[in-house]
Design goal:
alpha/beta, three-stranded parallel sheet, 16% strand, globular
């Protein structure tokens, strides 16, 4: 299992898509490719933008299918961040179904 602390890189307000991309490319996708579970720990992150969450997880869903959510976990999320994650996941489910 790989645990990734979001706050040290993204701060209390996670908005920078370049930081999300770096986390995705350098940590999330390699761990998933190795078959590991990935825990994204949002402890200390008060707010985020939808575009940050999208940049963080959408490619993992696109590459590994929606089933990747069995190995991708979200920890210590505020209600707002939980809502944003659900919006992105719902969007990706629709997007991947339409792409079939």
């Amino acid at each position: 299992m790989k645990s990734i602390q979001v706050r040290p890189q993204a701060g209390e307000f996670a908005e920078n898509k370049d930081i999300a991309r770096d986390l995705r490319v350098n940590e999330i996708l390699p761990a998933l490719a190795q078959g590991k579970e990935v825990v994204l720990d949002f402890r200390g992150v008060r707010l985020s933008t939808q575009s940050f969450i999208h940049a963080l997880i959408s490619e993992a869903i696109r590459v590994h299918s929606i089933d990747v959510l069995d190995r991708l976990m979200f920890k210590n999320c505020t209600p707002t961040i939980k809502t944003l994650i659900n919006i992105v996941v719902d969007y990706m489910q629709t997007d991947t179904k339409e792409g079939q």
